[in-house]
Structure formats: C-alpha cells, structure tokens
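Run: sequence + adenosine-5'-triphosphate -> complex structure.
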Amino acid sequence: MVQRVSTVAFEGIEARAVDVQVQVAPGLPAFAIVGLPDKAVSEARERVRSALIASGLALPARRITVNLAPADLPKEGSHYDLPIALGLMAAIGAIPPDALSGFTVLGELGLDGSIAPVAGVLPAAIGANARDEGLICPAACGAEAAWASPDIQIVAASSLIQIANHFKGTQVLSRPSPKVHEREEALLDLRDIKGQESAKRALEIAAAGGHHLLMIGSPGAGKSMLAARLPSILPPLSPSELLEVSMIASVAGEIEGGALTARRPFRAPRLSRPMSSRARKAPLLAW
Ligand SMILES: Nc1ncnc2c1ncn2[C@@H]1O[C@H](COP(=O)(O)OP(=O)(O)OP(=O)(O)O)[C@@H](O)[C@H]1O
Ligand SMILES: [Mg+2]
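>> structure
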C-alpha cells in the first residue's frame, strides 16, 4: 500500500503542492528517494532513519521507496524530512494511517528525533489554507504559521514522539497563536538629519506620492543615510503588505522566533551582513 503525505516545494515565494508517496514493499532492505531530490533531500534518508530509531521505531527490513510527485519539479531543502518520516510512521502503523490526510507537512529532523525550524512556513501555511488543509510544522515556526488564517488547524511539534502522541490522543498539542515583535529596535528617523533640506523634501514627496527615487551624489554625501531613514516617514504596512513582506522573509529564513514585524523593509546590499543564498534569490524590496 502507498501512504501519501502532502508537502510543498518553493518556487520563489509560491508554495507548490508536492505529494510524498511512501511505499514499504517486500524485497531486499533498501531506502530510496526519487522525484528530482537535491543533495539535502537525498540526505533525508539518514536523518529519517536515525530520528525513527531515536523515537523507538525501527525501519522495517523491507524495500522502502519514497516518491516526491510531481517528479519533474526539482525538490530543494531539508523540509521534506518530516513528511517522509510521518509517511513511514503511518506505513508501519506508528500513527493511524488516516491521521495525515488533510494536513500539509514540513520540517527538518535531527538525529535525535527533534524537529528543527525550516524556512517558508508562512507561504506553506497560506498554501495549505487555500487547499483547506491543516499544517504540521516545527514548534519554533508555529506562531509564524498561525498568521495564515485564524481557522487553519496547526500542529506545531518539537519531536516525532509529540506528533505520535498528538494523533494517539495521549498528549494533544494546542494551536499556536500568531506573534508580532513586541520590542522593535528604534527606527532610524528622518528628523535626525540636519541640513539636506532639498533632499529631505524630495524624500517626503516620494513617500507621500509613492514614487521611486534615484539618488546621485559624490561618495559620503549622505545618500545611504537618507535612504535608510525613508521607512520612518512611510505609513505602517497594511495587513496584505505585511503578509507579502513576511512571506519573502519566511522563504529567506529571516523570521526569528515565528514573530512577524510590521516594519517596512530596507535593504542596503553593500552595507548589510552577507545574505543567505535563499535571501539572495528572494525579490529585492529596497536598495
Ligand atoms: N548631512 C549630514 N549630516 C551628518 N552626517 C552626514 C551627513 N552626510 C553624510 N554624513 C555622514 O557620512 C556618512 C556616509 O554617508 P553615506 O554612507 O550616506 O554616503 P553615500 O552618499 O551613501 O556614499 P556612497 O556613494 O559612498 O554610498 C554617513 O553615515 C554619515 O555619518
Ligand atoms: Mg551609499
């Protein structure tokens, strides 16, 4: 029998549905993952095997095949560990076979069976909500997922054992609630700039009218200094903008502790810390 678990693959900030099919068949013991996996996905085998052993479950001495459908869509990242492990657990009867239907699953496994945070939980939750599915994700990402909708069912667990207990009903996990950053660092403020009256006026006009700005000036003239203070005179993010900006931050793995921030993004590529490869692929919001 084939056990099916839903997960997602990211294309930019879009989360595309991916079907993880797990088959445990008679034959020589083997564990293969097919469906255009990258190196991180192929290595899931070792993490899944160790995590199941650490959780008191052994892989059956049979032929295990995991297919990630659609097979022509490249699969990148470590978030396939959890759907593969849960599909296997359902296939060997460690959790009820129908427990995972209606859930999108993503998460990375540690060798000890713990579930580590992954990038992209917010777009995954929004995608799951659009398909009327719930979400199973790492505990550290629960607050981020809860932003997708007040009704979406979320199981945010910190280990495989917690998920097994949740579905057996022995220790039901409560739904996480959405979080925002409570103490934001003080924003750079335009009023701190002395002089530069015409430049400040240009910033105000651009901010009020929603225009683009091109700053030309000799090195050290204060272009970056002025640009960094533009967010301080822009209105707060609207709820839809907040979600859009946060989806990019989520895919780039830049949401800390699951808390979203209502601050308008400012990126200064020459000045900021080196970006992660995922952040580099995300659309650029401000220069
Ligand atoms: N009007 C000003 N008042 C106070 N400090 C200023 C002023 N203009 C520039 N500075 C100082 O000079 C520093 C360099 O300015 P900034 O980095 O904004 O220049 P820039 O125009 O972006 O230069 P570059 O072309 O090299 O990127 C600022 O961080 C600030 O400390
Ligand atoms: Mg500059």
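>> summary
The radius of gyration is 23 Å. Residues 197-209 form the longest helix (13 residues).
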